[in-house]
C-alpha cells in the first residue's frame, strides 16, 4: 500500500474543490498499475463527492446543500460561525471517503467525473486529504 496526505486551502467560503489532478499525480508517484484508490478526509465537517465540475454541477451541489442544510440557528451543535452545526451534518450526506478503481495507473472515472472535496465549513480554511493506493 502507498499513502500520502495533502493539504488543501479552501478559504473562508463553501467550496467544491476538484482533487482529480492531485490524484493523478499521486498515482504516478505511486507507480500505480491496477488496484484501488481510497480517498479520505479526516475532518468532521467535510466530505467527498464524485461529480461533474465546471458545468455548474459543483455550484448546484452547494446550492442543494444550502437548501437542505440552511446556515441558521436551528442546529443543536452551536459554536463557531452562525449555522456551523449544519457543517457537522454534512458528512452524513456527503461522506468523508470515496473509493475508485485504478486501471493501468489511472483512476477509472467516467468521462465527466471528478473526485471533489466538499467543504461548507467557513471556519476552517485548511483541509487535509489522504490518498491511499492498494495494488491489485
Automatic annotation (TrEMBL):
InterPro entries: UPF0047_YjbQ-like, YjbQ-like_sf. It holds the Pfam family YjbQ. Gene3D superfamilies: YjbQ-like. Belongs to the UPF0047 family. NCBIfam families: TIGR00149_YjbQ (TIGR00149). This is Secondary thiamine-phosphate synthase enzyme. The lineage of its organism: Bacteria, Bacillati, Actinomycetota, Actinomycetes, Pseudonocardiales.
Amino acid at each position: 500500500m502507498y499513502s500520502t496526505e495533502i493539504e488543501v486551502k479552501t478559504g473562508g467560503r463553501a467550496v467544491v474543490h476538484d482533487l482529480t489532478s492531485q490524484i493523478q499525480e499521486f498515482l504516478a508517484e505511486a507507480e500505480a498499475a491496477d488496484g484501488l484508490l481510497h480517498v479520505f478526509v479526516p475532518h468532521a465537517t467535510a466530505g467527498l463527492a464524485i461529480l461533474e465540475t465546471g458545468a455548474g454541477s459543483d455550484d448546484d451541489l452547494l446550492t442543494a446543500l444550502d437548501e437542505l442544510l440552511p446556515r441558521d440557528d436551528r442546529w443543536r451543535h452551536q459554536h463557531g460561525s452562525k449555522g456551523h452545526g449544519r457543517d457537522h451534518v454534512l458528512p452524513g450526506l456527503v461522506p468523508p471517503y470515496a473509493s475508485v478503481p485504478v486501471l493501468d495507473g489511472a483512476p477509472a472515472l467516467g468521462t465527466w467525473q471528478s473526485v471533489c472535496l466538499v467543504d461548507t465549513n467557513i471556519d476552517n480554511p485548511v483541509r487535509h486529504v489522504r490518498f491511499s493506493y492498494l495494488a491489485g
